[in-house]
Amino acid sequence: MPHRHTRMRLVTLIATSALAVGGSVSLAAAPSAHAASANVVISAVYGGGGNSGAPYANDYIELYNTGSSTIDLSGWSLTYYAASGNSGGSTALTGSIAAGGHYLVQEGAGSGSSAALPTPDTTGTLNLSATAGSVVLGNGSSTVDTVGYGAISSSYVEGSPAPAPSNKLADSRTTGCHDTDDNAKDFVNADPAPLNSTAPLAICGSGGVTPPPPTGMSATIEQIQGTSFQSPLVGQQVKDVKGVVTALNGSSGFWMQSTTPDDDPRTSEGLYVFGGAGSVKVGDAVVVAGKVTEYRPGGVDTGNLTTTELGNPNVQVTSSGNALPAPVVIGSKGHVPPAQVVEAGDPGNVETAGVTLDPSKSALDFWESLEGMRIQENDAKAVGPTNPSYGETPIVPANTRQVTWTPDGGVLYRNYATPNAMRLILSSALLPKTSIGSANTGDTYRGATVGVVDYNFGNYYLMATQAGQLQRGSTTRDVAKPAKKKQAAVATFNVENLAPSDPQTKFNRLAGQIVTNLAAPDIVALEEIQDNNGATDNGVVDSTATTGKLIAAIKAAGGPSYQAVWINPVNDQDGGQPGGNIRQVFIYRDDRGMTFVNKPGGTSINSVAVTGKGPWASINYSPGRIDPTDAAWDSSRKPLVGEFLWWGKPLFVIANHFAAKLGDDPLMGRYQPPQRASEVQRLAQASIVRGFVDQLLKANKNASIVVLGDLNDFDFSQTAAILKGHGKTALTDLIDTLPAKERYTYDYEGNSQVLDQILVSKALLAKHDYQVVHTNSQFYDQDSDHDPQLVKVEVH
């Protein structure tokens, strides 16, 4: 399962770059949406409300956020002190204040009939003096800002008091709302001009000086986006950027789109504005100024593309309730993404290679030309399951062509030239949690799914503002037939970081898969068994508690009594979740003719070796590890070898969990074609395992050998080719014996693909029955991210 990283601009957490990651799971904790900050200042105080000559009926206090992040005001308060220092009460604050935004607190009213204040952001009942007093802004027990004004004798003041206001004058912070911690320097008398959260952003202060107009060149959204992967105006200040707000990203920012598009299909009409969300609503026509930036999710060292944004915005709302631009219907004439071409040619880094977008030829260009725009997919097909933790589902348009469909409605990643680049990740982050149902592969979101195009974690996203109705497909979990009397049943199953701390329901469901869906095999090679205390990194490496809990669950599910064998790894040397010490484990049943040949002596650091010749060929340790100290296994799981007897006939099983795809470039990233850096280690691992197989077959050309596990590589990869070998000693990769459309064990971002394999020697090939048992990869309520596989063979 992919590692994930926090994107601060999204309301929820949205792996990075690898095409598929088999190994440990790393879930980043969700960041707080708001954080307390001293960036909030009191920007104005007015105590003459309702008095003689007063322009407003109520007193008010105005706040301003000088920072770059939205601030949660929960738990904050304003306290008033009279000139003598006596407390006049407090007002509790609620809600939040946007970066560069204002917050208006309405206080007590006088007896006059003056005008009402603009809609306040909160209300209180404080009766402020029109001429002398103090206001203290606090966050819990901490003081954030203090303003003392007029002739006061109390200590509630910063430096010297601000000038005395009156019924007709407020005290307003000077232009720019700077805070020197001297009230006399920071405040001036000014006409009352209360500002609430709908006021323009990044404009604060008075003193009789009109704030300077936004600087920079006038630009349209299309000019900012340009015709390549990054803006031609990056780093520049722009102004007069016009459009309609199409979606809000919580308190972080908003998307806007031009209502006067140009005729160039390469230039997007949409744009993300980072900040200013508190001052706008969907349908508002806005004029924005700000700095053009490029945001790269995951940081500068990733292969991810950037998103063009406007930062530190000055936002002015010119009208509200406007119709939104019509969405581009994906799959309609002129708007069909190239399915199997990510980026034509061999440009390297598309952001620096001078690539000019050609949406008709390259999928990367197609989606980039729609960045930030409203799009629509009709009857969108789920080509992978929803990840319920993040509300994300890979989808394609209903009329998608030029793909290989799996029997259950997924799209097959059948080689490096078929990336299925028309996929999008449908995100529910902008919608209520219950508005988009969790899908299985093959389900349909019937009707129109509408949203804006974003980019994150190596993929383009459809950030939905409207979702179709979920309609279930026909995908069901497979159930294998039990082995016949003469057949030895051998399975491989990655159980995804199984630890004793996992809920009992996970053990029960995995046990149900082993007993029912796999029909209780004679041997199951388990990958990702963690130690007795899971991810606690305290030196514990034994996994008896983990295997014991699973074996007990199997028995409780009506299965046979299994026994387990493995070799404990050296602490934190096998990769995966730190402290978890994942390893391969054989569980086996001995009630049908299977016997484990126990040959003690195998350890985490010594290597198993082949002994004997012909029918007497054997291994010195069972269980044993293959070359565990070779550098190819650094931070990776070492192969586990076991010798079994099926009705007295030797059967050698090698369980593998090769290095994960961490560090590979994303398919939809800036480097084209993507580089697969992690493959180098798997090639070395495959060579070592293949060398051991060759030793067994040299000792006995008729040896019965099963090589299986999570290889973290594809059926068409060089890794698989090395393991298979060639000539008389070639192993058969059983996934190759299935019809092409059925070759998948895993789903990554909507690509159905092979990561897990079972290979057998020629002695076992004549009479075999092989099946990928699809129980997990296509289902949102999966117990593991991998499907198990099962082969039934006759051992001679």
TrEMBL record:
Q: Which UniProt keywords apply?
A: Signal
Signal sequence span is 1-35
CDD domains associated with the record = YhcR_OBF_like
| GO molecular function ontology, one term from the record | catalytic activity
Domain (LTD) spans 30-151
Q: Which domain of life is it from?
A: Bacteria
InterPro entries (UniProt xref) = Endo/exonu/phosph_ase_sf (IPR036691), Endo/exonuclease/phosphatase (IPR005135), Lamin_tail_dom (IPR001322), Lamin_tail_dom_sf (IPR036415), TAT_signal (IPR006311)
Per its UniProt record, what Pfam families does this chain match?
Answer: Exo_endo_phos_3, LTD
The protein, known as: Nuclease
